[in-house]
Amino acid sequence: MAALVELDSLEILVVVDNEYGIPSYVTRKCTTNSSLGSLDPISPCPNPAVQQSGSLKDLGINGSSITTNDRGDAKKELRMDSICCSAHGLSLLITGVVGNKRHTMLFDTGPENRIFELNAQRLRAPLGDIEAIHLSHWHRDHSGGMLKVLEMAGAAGAKSISVDLHPDRPDYRGIIAMAPISMEADPTFEEIEKAGGRVEKHGEAHGVLENCFMVSGEIPRVTKYELGLKRGIRFAKETGKWEEDTLIKDERYLMCKLKGAQSPPTPAPSTVPPVFDQLTLATDKGLVLFTGCSHAGVVNASRNAVDLGSGTPLYAVMGGYHLADAEPELISDSVADLKALEPKVLLAGHCTGWRAKFEIERQMPGRLVPSFVGSKFVL
Questions:
Q1: Can you give the residue ranges of the Metallo-beta-lactamase domain (predicted)?
Q2: Does the first or last residue of the chain, that is N or C, have fewer Cβ atoms within 10 Å of its Cβ?
Q3: Distance between CA atoms of residues 161 and 130, nearest Å
Q4: Edge-to-edge strand list for the sheet holding 232-236
Q5: pLDDT for 187-196, tens place per residue?
Q6: CA 190 to CA 185: how far, in whole Å?
Q7: pTM for the whole thing?
Q8: Superfamily of 6-64+77-217+228-269+278-378 according to CATH
């Protein structure tokens, strides 16, 4: 596999995520001491190195013009129907920039057609730019919007979109409780092709879009406490039975490599919160890892990314860390092992959970940037 191309910058638009925090048109320039973002759409971000726009005030400033004369001198209206909606799932529109060239791919498609369409329209997402779609794993909260994505992207002018899939598609997946609970089926290969996607099946690591991105193969399980999806099962039509499926072996992450950047000016000491004094304004960036659910373990995925990246340091980890229902000790161990890899930006979303986010901020103050639907990040 060819080496990753170094990207000059990376743009990420959060089309679907579990939480709503910052409305449309948010830009956070995440420098090497990126930090805790606001946990709601009103509070300002406390990190002086993070440039942020898109608060409710900004959305109102860019809102609809008032055409009547019944509101005094108000000229703009903040409309609630212009704000994105959260849902259990994930979809990230990712653009890598190298010189004057841009490559755009979609990482996962959210849980269902309606929520993807709603948020993409409200964000005015440039779906016509999509060249490839990567599905992190076969679970409906990541694959459910696939057919709508292909329909909308095609209508917006996208041509011959490759859809990168693991070949082992379960008939159904589910969770065992007192009895099996089935999830909806993922779109089939045939449905994806009929919708206009160019299906590509991969089980091994490979480069995509002129090696601006890399898709992993099966993630090695080396961390003793990362045991997969508790009570996970899959249904096999040929046997008519549900089978244990805790490892979710088809899960694959996406990775890219960012060039180093000039350090931002160091703020005057009086304006720097104490937590930032511990962070180095280094020029190096490095690997950016996108993980769908981290059923294989966010530490396992991060360690494997560093191995495949030939020692390039880990700069950022974005997506679901799958710690929402984890025991406190497992959360603490996971964050400690992530800390040992020295990432500078932790864009935690989807299934990470609020307890894990607070543990990240406790162990690595200033490095958490919560991911919310409607956010745009520039790294």
A1: 97-207
A2: N
A3: 7
A4: 180-182, 172-176, 232-236, 241-244
A5: 999 999 999 9
A6: 13
A7: 0.88
A8: Ribonuclease Z/Hydroxyacylglutathione hydrolase-like (3.60.15.10)
